[in-house]
Each structure stands twice: as C-alpha cells, then as structure tokens.
Amino acid sequence: MNNIKDFENLNQKKILLRLDLNVPLKDGVITDQTRINKIIPVIEFLLNKNSKIIIISHVGRPKGKINNDLSLKPICENLEKKINRKIKLIDDDIFKLKKEDLLKDPNDQIVCLENIRFYKEEENNDISFAKHLAGLADLFVNDSFSCSHRAHTSVCKITEFLPSFAGIQLETEINALKKVTTEIKKPITCIVGGSKISTKIGIIKNLIPKFDNIIIVGGMANNILSYKGNQIGKSVKEKDCEMIIDEIFETSKNYSCVITYPEDVLVGKNMNDSSQVKEINNIKNNELILDIGPKTINKIKNIIKTSETVLWNGPAGYFENPNFANGSYEIAKAIVKKNKDKSIYSVAGGGDTIALINQINAIKDFNFVSTAGGAFLEYLEGKELPGIKALK
User: Fold this and answer.
1) Helix H or strand E encompassing 30
2) I need a labelling partner for 45 at 20 to 30 A (CA). Which of 12, 168, 290, 379 fits?
3) What are phi and psi of 140, to 5 degrees?
4) pLDDT tens-digit profile of 161-203?
5) pLDDT tens digit string along 288-299?
6) DSSP H helix total and E strand total for the chain
7) 138-176 exposure pattern, b = at least 16 Cβ within 10 A, e = fewer
8) Cβ neighbours of residue 253 under 8 Å, at least 6 residues apart?
9) With contact defined as beta carbons under 8 Å apart, do 239 and 198 qualify?
C-alpha cells in the first residue's frame, strides 16, 4: 500500500481526496469536530506540495437522493476557517462535471463535491460512476479509514481507474491498530463496553488469543452477571447470549486470558436517577445497573497500572447522566496518568468513547483516538477492509 507522502512530484496534480467528514449536525451546526480536525494534516501536506484538491465525502444516509439537511456546506465553512483557505462547494450534477471545469482559476487550490451519497451509484460500487469520478483527477487518495469497511465507489471501485494512495490519517490509524493487534507490547488489556455483547463477540474471540486481560463493562456486562446467576433487575440485557458467553470463558481458559467483569455496580430506579452502590448479589427487581462500582473501578485501575498496551472501546456506564459517568471517567484518568509517564500505549475508539474523552478534554492524552466506528471494529475482528484491500 503506497502512501501519498512518498509520491515525488505533486505540483499542480489534481488529487481526488476521499475524506470522512460525516460529523454530527444539529440544525446545521456541527456538534463534534473531531473528524474534521483529524484530516487537516493531509490537506496541509497536499497544499504545501502545490496540489489541486477535489474533496469527496458524505454526511448521513440520504439513500441516493438530494437532502439539503445533509449538505456539506456547514462542514466546508468550518474547514475553511481551520485551514484559512477558500473552499468552493460544487453542487452541480457530478455526471456533468469535466476535469477541465474544476479548479480553472489558478488561485483555486481546493474544491469540495457535494455529498457523494446523493448519488445512488456511490453505495452500489458502480463501475461507470467510478470511471467518471476518476476522469476528474490525476491521482486518488483515500484518507478515510472510517469508511474503508464499505465497498462503495469512492472508496473501492475508483482505485481501478486511477493511481491510488493511502492518506496520512489512514496510515496513522492502521499503524495504531497494528500496535494493539500484531505488534503488541505486553501485558495488553482490552476494555470493551456498549450494550450488545453479540456485536462485539467477533472482536473478543479474535483478541482473546493475543490479550492478557479483557475487561467487559457497560450494558454487555449485565449479560455476564445474569449468566453467573445474579439478579439484574430492569437492566438492559440481550436475549439468547448464553452460548456466546460460554464460548468467551472457554476460549479464555485455553489462552490464559483473564476475563474481568463488575464485582459491584451503581444502580438507579431510572436513567435520570441518582446513583447507589450495590453488590452484584443485592440488586432489586425495580433497579437498573447504570455504572460500575468502586471495587470494580479499583480492580480495573490496577490492571491498567500493570499493562503496557490498552485498547478501549465502549463506556463503562450511562455517562450521559453525570451520576453514572464516574466509572468511565476513572478508566480514562487511569489511562491518561500512565500515558503521561509514557509507560503505556493507548488506543480508544467508538463514538461514545470519543464523546466521553472529549468531555474531560483528554483526546490528546491518548496515543491514538479512532473516529472510525464499523471499520475500527471490523479491523479488530481480523477482517480485511474493502477500502484497504483496494489500495493494495
């Protein structure tokens, strides 16, 4: 896989740059700019090389139809301010665009095509759409790791028609994930949360042979507590997971991987309630488990203390209510503390995890924070991502 940094002469070359600018929008306002901040290095690199940039991205799921609420306009305006350059948003029909029409003015260095998912051909990995897009530029750069698990035209098929390269962010992402999957410094710990154990089973099974500790928190830990014979009251629980949990514990024995789950919890009568510490054998029928308790926090902190590598995906509790955010904050703070004395390599990923880390302003205190959702999880499962395969 070639990186665009290694291409010798980019002067005046037209670069089709696939980015993930799929940021959360509320009434046209961006509520989290993390993804935009992460793609600035590749844009600045290409501008310094005197390239001409044509950005391709998507927002949301317009399903092949124009939806003005999902326009890239507010994102272009935000990016303009960050790089201090004018970015022209081109909302003309892509099929009518020609290479010579783009960036005609010598002063123009960067344009952005309107939401690529306004075209049904994008999600169909359409060959004629790929040919047409390729005809607009000299080179293709994929700097969108978070879209690389999708076999879409502007991620995959386009590589058949243009010299294609990995971008700076994509390579950084892969290198960070390699450090927690293949180039591991042990002892290594995975902290995994979220509500559904079935969506993370592939990851857990793939990581058990490589990891020393897997810590299961969040809603998915309720399934384990129930499996172990504890009452979990009204807590969220997935159905028919006994075989999955059985498999986790059996596999972990074969590979000397320690599975850790809550010893005590914080409960409330509803999601907006105040919190109360409970032992796991003392939960009432009208109570919800919404965070991990102090004993569990201390146990996790001790595991982090003795780890050299940590991977974190999914919060420990319902952190949207500050009464149930302490477990997640304490995990974050324990990782940050080790990071500051450079005694751990830390990778965090997933939208909720990023939102939580942002709340305590600690993004820069992790070695790597992945904005990818599905791609991050599929890579950890050991799957080959279509967008990465296409670059090879």
Assistant:
1) strand 29-30
2) 379
3) -120, 135
4) 999 999 999 999 999 999 999 999 999 999 999 888 888 999 9
5) 999 999 999 999
6) 13, 17
7) bbbbbbbbbbbbbbbbbbbbbbeebebbbbbbbbbbbeb
8) none
9) no
CA distance 262 to 18: 42
Say which residue the tokens 């154990």 belong to. 197
List the structure tokens of 275: 């919190």
Of the candidates 327, 245, 331, 232, the one whose C-alpha atom is nearest the C-alpha of residue 289 is: 232
Residues 202 and 215: their CA atoms lie apart, in Å, by 15
Contacts of 390 (CB under 8 A, 6+ apart): 142, 155, 156, 157, 159, 160, 164
326 contacts 301 by C-beta, under 8 angstroms: no
List domains and CATH numbers for the chain: 4-169 (3.40.50.1260), 180-380 (3.40.50.1260)
CA atoms of 381 and 155, how far apart (whole Å): 20
Whose structure tokens read 């022209």?
88
Report the alpha-carbon distance of residue 280 to residue 267 in Å, rounded: 10
**Sequence letter at residue 347:** V
What strands lie across the sheet with 258-260, from one edge to the other? 258-260, 213-216, 188-192, 309-313, 345-349, 368-370
Distance separating alpha carbons of residues 324 and 215, to the nearest angstrom: 18
Distance CA 146, CA 131 (A): 23
CA atoms of 14 and 5, how far apart (whole Å): 15
Tell me what the pLDDT averaged over the chain comes to.
94
Per residue in 324-341, is it b (16+ CB within 10 Å) or e — as a string?
A: bbbbbbbbbebbbebbee
- Total-model pTM: 0.90
Give me 336's structure tokens.
């940050």
